[in-house]
Design a protein that fits this description.
13 helices, alpha/beta, globular, 6-stranded mixed beta sheet, 332 residues, 11 strands, Rossmann fold, 16% strand
Length: 332
């Protein structure tokens, strides 16, 4: 059984309510049809019910809310205004946002405990997906930053965890400081262990292994490793490590034989967004890996971004992951 199928089975047990605001995208409606048929989660669609059901009759059983006509839109507008009035928002602007940008309406559903999570981004940028979430749902009280990861399932992988990896940050934090990298590593560890139930081995990636190169970029990763080890001493984390030293046991024996992570890393922390984004796409395309994400971490409720190149399968998997995150929202 593929790992994402295990995630779906976990999601089915509690059937969390996940909002899909982008009903203008055919892929979202196709995915929602599968999710309902397979009973992975309870879906809330935002849009015109008649138009949605006309093309996808199976969605007649879904909860469909049209922000343009819903009885709760005015109530949400008042609450959004109260949340944002100190930032200059007017009641009229609140109403306009809720009816023109359905991501705001989706976030209010989560804020008011009428839904458990959101999946969006199929036809919107990451900024347009996360801005309303940060304004309304906000971060966890103990979160230092919001970052993201991809859950990678690599077929026929000979390395650790049968090809199940977390790659972070590949979608959000452009050029993290050492401190930000440390927190990304700690949060990614929690995410990996929640989703897989297995122990994380975290590699702080670089073009250098254990001092083989000298550069400020290497120093950033080394400092991040030390910070993460101090902040979370129970995590198995090491760096700086080149990718081959991190995942290939024979290379690890040669380059980093004293490391408790080298050769068996399953959480890969990239030094910046360029490296992370390029890295996950290389693996996705060349190794035909399934890449689910960007999955956010650090939010008080799960709000997950889709790649605009996502497939229907990607959307279904991301909804399942979001449901599992919602189930574990108060844990760890």
């Amino acid at each position: 059984m593929k790992f994402i199928e295990q995630i779906k089975e976990r999601a089915k047990k509690e059937k969390k309510q996940i909002v899909l605001p982008e009903t203008m995208d055919e892929r979202i409606l196709d995915a929602a049809t599968i999710i309902i048929r397979e009973e992975i989660a309870q879906i809330i669609l935002l849009g015109n019910k008649e138009n949605i059901v006309k093309t996808h009759p199976a969605l007649a059983s879904a909860t469909i809310i049209d922000p343009l006509t819903s009885d709760i839109t005015n109530e949400f507008a008042k609450k959004l205004y109260e949340l944002r009035k100190e930032k200059g928002m007017t009641l009229e602007e609140a109403n306009r946002l809720l009816t023109e940008d359905f991501m705001y309406f989706a976030c209010m559903l989560v804020k008011e405990n009428m839904a458990d999570g959101i999946v969006s981004g199929a036809c919107h940028s990451t900024a347009n997906t996360l801005r309303p979430a940060l304004q309304i749902i906000k971060t966890k009280k103990d979160a230092k930053l919001v970052s993201s990861f991809f859950l990678m399932e690599i077929p026929n992988c000979e390395y650790e965890e049968n090809g199940i990896y977390v790659f972070s940050d590949c979608g959000l934090v452009q050029n993290p400081t050492s401190e930000e990298l440390a927190y990304i590593a700690i949060d990614s560890t929690k995410s990996f262990e929640i989703l897989t139930g297995k122990k994380a081995y975290v590699a702080m990636l670089s073009h250098s292994t254990k001092g083989s190169a000298k550069h400020p970029d290497v120093d950033k990763v080394l400092n991040a490793t030390k910070m993460a080890q101090q902040l979370a001493p129970l995590i198995n984390i090491d760096g700086e490590l080149q990718l081959d030293a991190a995942i290939v046991p024979s290379v690890a024996q040669f380059k980093a034989q004293d490391s408790n992570v080298a050769g068996k890393a399953n959480v890969l922390i990239f030094p910046d967004l360029d490296a992370g984004n390029i890295g996950y796409k290389l693996v996705q395309r060349f190794a035909h890996a399934d890449a689910y994400g960007p999955i956010t971490q650090g939010m008080s409720a799960p709000v997950n971004d889709l790649s605009r190149g996502c497939s229907v399968t990607d959307i279904v998997g991301t909804v399942a992951i979001t449901a599992v995150q919602a189930e574990n929202k108060g844990r760890k």
